[in-house]
């Protein structure tokens, strides 16, 4: 069978949200007052229009604290995710993220505490857990398991052995 093209993120504005335990609260304008966005188990392969969609759906997109994008077809960590400064939970497991370096983008999120990336090709990389913990020292839960003091120590040792400090190059002024 032929794979169907992924629906654009803009389709989300016409989708009926899945029922949760509590009813969704809405503002006078009809936008949702939630701080969570669960878009798991879709076929999203990119997040273009994501911020536009989020601002159409949510009354306070800047308060977004939890984004679940697990089990999609994302191949990278879209920079749009780094614009939600209140993000504390980000689920990206079960996607197609190829490069461990993608994790670096998340270092700008001051409140990120819980992150999942298992089930992506990057999980196979040597030093996967250590790399993520070095890059994101504020994360306290990674791939659904708590980050221990021992994890931090292992990550630091791994970092000293594997990540070369950047050399400062002095440019020669050629006149």
Describe the 3D structure.
The chain is an alpha/beta fold and 175 residues long. The protein has 3 helices and 6 strands, in the order βαβββαββα. It has a 6-stranded mixed sheet with strand order 1-2-3-4-5-6, with no helix packed on it. Helix 1 (50-57) links the parallel strand 1 and strand 2 (66-68). The protein is globular and about 55 Å long. The chain starts with 35 loop residues before the first strand and ends in a 13-residue tail after the last helix. The model is unreliable at 1-6 (pLDDT under 50). Residues 1-28 are annotated as: Disordered. Keywords: Cytoplasm, Leucine-rich repeat, Repeat.
Task: Describe the secondary-structure layout.
Layout: E1 36-38, H1 50-57, E2 66-68, E3 89-91, E4 114-116, H2 128-135, E5 141-142, E6 145-146, H3 149-162
Parallel strand pairs: 1-2, 2-3, 3-4, 4-5
Antiparallel strand pairs: 5-6
- Continuous helix count: 3
Q: Roughly what fraction of the amino acids lie in strands?
A: 5-15%
Average pLDDT number:
85
Q: Which descriptor suits the 3D outline?
A: globular
Structural class: alpha/beta
Strand runs, count: 6
Low-confidence stretches: 1-6
Query: What order do the SSEs take from the amino end to the carboxyl end, as H and E?
Result: EHEEEHEEH
First and last CA, distance:
64 Å
- Largest sheet entry: 6 strands, mixed
Helix content: 10-25%
* Main sheet: strand order: 1-2-3-4-5-6
CA gyration radius, whole angstroms: 19 Å
């Amino acid at each position: 069978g032929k794979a169907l093209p992924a629906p654009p993120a803009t389709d989300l504005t016409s989708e009926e949200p899945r029922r949760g335990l509590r009813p969704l609260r809405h503002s006078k304008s009809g936008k949702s007052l939630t701080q969570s966005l669960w878009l798991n188990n879709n076929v999203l392969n990119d997040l273009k229009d994501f911020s536009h969609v989020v601002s159409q759906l949510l009354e306070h997109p800047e308060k977004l604290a939890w984004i679940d994008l697990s089990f999609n077809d994302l191949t990278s960590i879209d920079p749009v995710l780094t614009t939600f400064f209140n993000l504390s939970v980000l689920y990206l497991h079960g996607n197609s993220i190829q490069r461990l370096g993608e994790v670096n983008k998340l270092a700008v999120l001051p409140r990120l505490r819980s992150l999942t990336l298992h089930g992506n090709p990057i999980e196979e990389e040597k030093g996967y857990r250590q790399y993520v913990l070095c890059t994101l020292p504020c994360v306290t839960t990674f791939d659904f398991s708590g980050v221990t003091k021992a994890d931090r120590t292992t990550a630091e040792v791994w970092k000293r052995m594997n990540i070369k400090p950047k050399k400062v190059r002095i440019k020669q002024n050629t006149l």
